[in-house]
Amino acid sequence: MFMGNKYKVLAGLLIGCWGWMAASRAPSTLQAGVPYPENFRSWTLIKTAVIEKGNPAFAHWGGFHHIYANEKAMAGYRTGRFADGSVIVFDVLEAVEKNNTLEEGERRIVDVMVRDTVRYAATGGWGFEEFNGASKTERLVGDSGKSCFGCHRVREGNGFVFSGYRE
Ligand code: HEC
Predict the structure, then answer these.
(1) Is 114 close to ligand 1, i.e. is its CB under 6 Å away?
(2) 162 CA distance to ligand 1 centroid (A)?
């Protein structure tokens, strides 16, 4: 009887522990999505453009955008082949007119492409995500990047990347 209870307690502890471990592991499993690209502004600047009123992309991407690449993505820009671990960021900021100068305003969105040919096989080997404004957690892509890829797929011959690097 005593032993029986002891085993029950032990079993309970084990199940409790397993439950706790499973629960504490859950977030990392859920975060299979594209991580926020910390410190991307210290990466290589690929290009800058301003999307103005009248451009069909204005409502969503209007204002400045700067494109940044991490080191692996830089190798991709040079060779045309992007290795797993490449990350490219499309940083969108308001364009504010001040004293005949166009200045960067508030951040509007941060679009990210992360190369992982296994995890994101369904979207050309790129994971797509869009972070809202200055938020590092508010994600706007709800269809696993299919809508983003719908446009980027036309660049298949260029690793699904539109921009090019100029020395
Ligand atoms: C309507 C077509 C279209 C859609 C939809 C689209 N993109 Fe793009 N994307 C572009 C174009 C065009 C460029 C290049 C802009 C430039 O060169 O200034 C670009 C550039 C980028 C870049 C920089 C790398 C590159 O390809 O030059 C990233 C990162 C990016 N987009 C992410 C996204 C994400 C994330 C989504 C979905 C939320 C998305 N894009 C949806 C057209 C699109």
Answers:
(1) no
(2) 7
Residue 17 reports pLDDT greater than 90:
no
Do the Cβ atoms of 93 and 111 come closer than 8 Å?
no
Distance CA 79, CA 88 (A): 15
Cβ proximity of 132 and 109 under 8 Å: yes
How many residues belong to the chain? 167
Is 91 close to ligand 1, i.e. is its CB under 6 Å away? Answer: no
Residue 40 exposed, middle or buried by CB count within 10 Å (0-12, 13-18, 19+): middle
Residue 7 has what pLDDT?
54
Query: Does the Cβ of 49 fall within 6 Å of ligand 1?
Result: yes
Distance 68 CA to ligand 1 centre (A): 12
Tell me what pLDDT residue 148 has: 98
* pLDDT tens digits for range 129-144: 999 999 999 999 999 9
Is-contact 37 87, C-beta < 8 A? yes
151 lines ligand 1 (CB under 6 A): yes
In Å, how far are 2, 26, 124 from 161, measured between CA atoms?
Answer: 68, 33, 11
Task: Report the predicted TM-score, pTM, of the whole model to 2 decimal places.
Answer: 0.85
Angle at 92 between CA 76 and CA 49, to 5 degrees: 70
